Amino acid sequence: MAKILKRERLVPNIHLIEVEAPEIVRKCRPGQFVIVMPDDKGERIPLTIADWDIQKGSITSIFLVVGTSTHKLANLHAGDEVPVFVGPLGKPSEIEKFGTVLCAGGCFGIAAIYPIARALKEKGNKVITLLDVKANYLLYWEDKLRAVSDHFSISSRDNYYDCKEYIPYSLKNILKKEKNIDRVVSIGCTYLMYTCAEATRLHEIKTMVSLNPIMVDGTGMCGACRVTVGGKTKFACVDGPDFDGHLVDWDELFMRRKSYFDDEIQSMCYWERKNFP
Amino acid sequence: MRRVQIHYPQIDKIDFPSVYRDYEVRRDDPFFDRNYNLCILCGRCVRVCHEIRGASTVTFVFRGSHAVVGTVLDRPLQEVGCQFCGACVDVCPTGALTERAIKYEPLPDDQAKTICPLCSMGCELDVMLNKGRILSTRPSKEGAVNLGQACVKGRFAIKDTVYSSQRILKPMIRRRKELEEVSWDEALDFVAQRLKSYKGKEIGLIQSPQISCEGNFLVERFAREVVKSQNVDFSTGISPLEAFYETAHKDKVKPRFNFKREEISEADVILLAGLNLAVSHPILWLEVLKAVRKGTKLIMVSPDEPLGGRHTTVCLRVKPGSEASLFNYLSKRLLKDEQADGRVLEGQEFFTTDLAKLTAAKVVESTGIDENTLNYAARLLSEGKSCFIFGMGLIQDSRIEQNLAALWNLALLNKGRIIPLGLETNSRGLFEIKRKSGQKTKPFDQIVQEVKGGQIKALYLFGPVPGNKKLKTEFLVVQDSYLNKMSERADAVFPAATFAESDGMFVNVEGRMQSFHRVIEPLGDAKPDWWIVSQLALRWGKKDFLYKKSSDILRELKKAIPAFSKVSTSAQKGGLPRFIQESDKEKEKFMPLKYQERTELTSKTYPFLLGSEYNLDYYRSLILSDEIKGFEIIRNPRWFKLNPKDAKRLDLEDGDEVEVVSPVGKIKGIIRNTDSVPEGMVRSCLFWIEEPSSSPLLPVKIKRGK
Q1: What's residue B681's pLDDT?
Q2: Which residue among B13, B20, B633 sits closest to A137, beta carbon to beta carbon?
Q3: pLDDT per residue over B545-564, tens digit each?
Q4: A:B CB pairs within 8 Å
Q5: Is residue A97 part of a domain?
Q6: How close is the nearest chain B Cα to the Cα of A152, in Å?
Q7: 3-state secondary structure string, chain A?
Q8: Taking the domains of chain B in order of start, what are their residue ranges?
Q9: Distance from the A74 Cα atom to the nearest Cα atom in chain B, whole angstroms
Q10: Residues of A whose CB is below 8 A from B628
């Protein structure tokens, strides 16, 4: 049983969870993830590690409340325990000195991209951070990310920040201006990663995306997280989660993610009925 | 907002930055969520709650940019008198208020109309459908009865009522001590064969006022023509309509039952007696509120303080059982003012002489209301056109006749209108069928007695039966939509279709004939009630019971019972409302007073008086709070309502488990403190459902449970 040290709502629907897990902290590296179960009967939720504290021995993750399990997780409090908290899983992101790296993140990806940006900065890269939020009140961790980036820009649909275009448009604009970008790292929802990968395809800049297919055990046994990358079947949990965005079969990924759409709604309705009359 | 997004895709940019107010989403109330982050402060919910529903639970709180819609002291809605009618949810343009049950459901792809079966008003509802499944219900804007409004039952309970987990889906018969699912033919053959072995007087049939006129008419004919039994009545035994009719019948007075909703709001003074109108008939209560806003005076006569008591001009909280002396005293006061008009009819001087015996001191003592208040009420009554509405509260003890006679005399003296309010959906329709079918039948109490005595050996039930633990017969058939205690013991169980799955007609309390149509396909093997009865009659070789659709029965009904002669079998499309036909003349005659002194029911061993609360929180055998958790929160049938002073004396707190013991039986429940109940009284609605007796006012004592 892992103890929850902190659980707070950062912005509407996005929550932070900090769990005591000293063994995981010792091993974890940027880009890896943990699997958490909110209760004995719940699903296993893969969450990207957003930060860790060696002194406290704690792992911090950010999650978006969408379905039953994440609702359950959002209803936990500091001091509660989660029955399953395993990690670090997956391969760490490639961190080397590339030159100039553009990190594009949105939604829960804002937090997931933070350890990668930090590590890239430490390696001596020039880090350009591009964040996407729907409205100004959905932005979090701005100061943290600003501290690790050389150039920082936010696009929000309400035109509160630098621009109001969706992230691929602003990405294209940046690519036009800055000729010497060597690598793009993109984390967020599948659509965001897909559009980012399409935006950089013409410029032939290697784009790494952190895929989030439906995942069950996270150790390569079940095969629920199959994705096709470069014509070969890969498991996102052991071969990923980072892949080259230009090689991923996006259509298949979108389809696979929708497999349990109706069941998820039913489960959500059932849970709501039980807990909220 | 959603519609704006869909229909105006060109609006893709908003020049103003969005400001998130970061309020917590309120989820502590049943049925709907309140997310004031999405609120645009249009004030529609505030207005509908205040101006139409008269509840005034929400209003604007704080000032300037901090202004938000909220409740007093930020309490949950259930603590500030919200009745969860859902009117605010229906008018909310942004989704700040959303129905929780359909939050994650798809959008409706079809819409149909039905009639709500959960009280005797018969509100018209729009049913939202998706792929042939009910998503939710809304009050219909064209509904002539409800005028776009509904109550918590019609708004939030319909879907769960239809798709209840307790639905009976297959016909079942008992073989080797177990209920087995069988085909319709097998079940019908089995029941017919067994019923044939009994004589007519050994068979009892108990109807339900919650099934359509067609169903009830066929049951009546089935009893008369097929099994030749006189033991047929409906399950609650007595309704205000029936009681009023019988009292009037004895004295050869002909009362009028039809009324129009507008008659209430046109009155200058309204007197409500023995009912909590805001809970039992919320839609009629709206009409009363409309009148009150126009300046009509409202008088309430009840031992309890009814909901919405603040709208009353004067609230007469009488001691239970002393209503008759109150009405008689009011008549006497009126008579003093009006004698000059020669209002007292010739040859009926007995009335004045009888009233003369009644002294003010006596009335003050028996009712517990001071003389000034009584005189004030009498003065209000003399002011203009009056309307008297009464409910189950007046007919709940042995003094039914004197209560009703006193009320009748008062109304006659005042040239007022008297309106008895039945509870069940089709109580009016069933009443007309029973009254005009010309068959002599035994009342419910007598049937129960005969079942206990062993004269009735086979029982055929169409709905829930109160006091069901004691009814034991050789052969028991249950025809119901939901499993209940009786169907566990039954020898045969027929799955009946609910209102949403069948066609039919209800007659509402106004006398308005409302047809409803099939909205969804029947669940499982459920069939309409009329179909089951007609198929059963065919097993006796009765060819004239063969009907293909319910409208054929309606045609028959029209011929057989003159009250229904205005029925048209085609679907009702706008047009004029169709009412039950009745002669317009009310015979003007006073009834003898039959006044008896109020007797003290309580004693030292049984210090409290238990009274029933009459809310129709059930549909056939389904008690709504069993299926819908929200109902358990707002109106738990296990509550025993007690005055806080009594509770303090007994050292009981809210939520304490208690056992209430009466000479007839005992029952367990939970204590709920409320000021609305007078001292020395306990209110419960469970008692009525599970352990009723002929006199619902019972002396009881309260013991602390485990």
Answers
A1: 86
A2: B20
A3: 888 888 888 888 888 887 78
A4: 46
A5: yes
A6: 20
A7: CEEEEEEEEEECCEEEEEEECHHHHHHCCCCCEEEEECCCCCCCEEEEEEEEECCCCEEEEEEECCCHHHHHHHCCCCCCEECEEEEEECCCCCCCCCCEEEEEEECCHHHHHHHHHHHHHHCCCEEEEEEEECCHHHCCCHHHHHHHCCEEEEEECCCCCCECCCHHHHHHHHHHHCCCCCEEEEECCHHHHHHHHHHHHCCCCEEEEECCCCCCCCCCCCCCCEEEECCEEEECCCCCCEEECCCECHHHHHHHHCCCHHHHHHHHHHHHHHHCC
A8: 1-104, 106-163, 169-196, 198-237+424-466+473-479, 240-420, 608-704
A9: 14
A10: 277
Q: Reply yes or no on whether the pLDDT at B337 is more than 70.
A: no
Q: How many domains does chain A have?
A: 2
Residue in B closest to A269 by C-alpha: B104
Would you state the pLDDT for residue B340?
Answer: 44
Compute φ and ψ for B598, nearest 5 degrees: -75, 130
Q: Which domain holds residue A74?
A: 2-89
Residue B18 and residue A277: Cβ atoms within 8 Å? Answer: no
In this chain, the answer to whether the domains covering B1-104 and B240-420 adopt an identical fold is no
pLDDT interval class at B59 (50, 70, 90): very high
Taking residues A64-90, what's their average pLDDT?
90
The per-residue pLDDT for B571 is: 46
Q: So what's the pLDDT on residue B573? A: 46
ipTM of the complex: 0.78
- Domain check: are A177 and A125 in the same one? yes
Per CB distance under 8 Å, which residues of A are interface residues toward B?
12, 135-138, 158-160, 164, 265, 268-269, 272-273, 276-277
User: Is B488's pLDDT higher than 50?
Assistant: yes
Total residue length of chain A: 277
Provide the 3-class DSSP secondary structure of residue B183: coil
Class of the CATH domain delimited by B608-704: mainly beta
pLDDT value of position A36 = 92
Q: Quote the tokens at residue B581.
A: 């036909």
Confidence (pTM):
0.85
pLDDT of A253 reads 92
Lowest mean pLDDT among A75-89, B2-16, B114-128, B360-374: B2-16
Domain with residue A42: its CATH number is 2.40.30.10
CATH of domain B240-420: 3.40.228.10
**Cβ contact, residue pair B103, A272, below 8 Å:** yes
Distance from CA of B153 to the nearest CA of A (A): 14
The CATH number of residue A131's host domain is: 3.40.50.80
pLDDT in tens, B590-642: 777 766 666 677 778 888 888 877 777 888 888 888 888 888 888 888 888 88
CATH topology of domain B1-104: Alpha-Beta Plaits (3.30.70)
Domain termination residue (choose one: A209, A234, A251)? A209
Q: Across the interface, do A273 and B101 touch by the CB < 8 Å criterion?
A: yes
Q: Quick one: pLDDT band at residue B468, thresholds 50, 70, 90?
A: low
Which residues in chain B are contacts of A9 at CB distance < 8 A? none
Please give the pLDDT value at position B577. Answer: 59
Chain B residues near residue A138 by CB distance under 8 angstroms:
20
Do B461 and B477 contact (CB within 8 A), yes or no?
yes
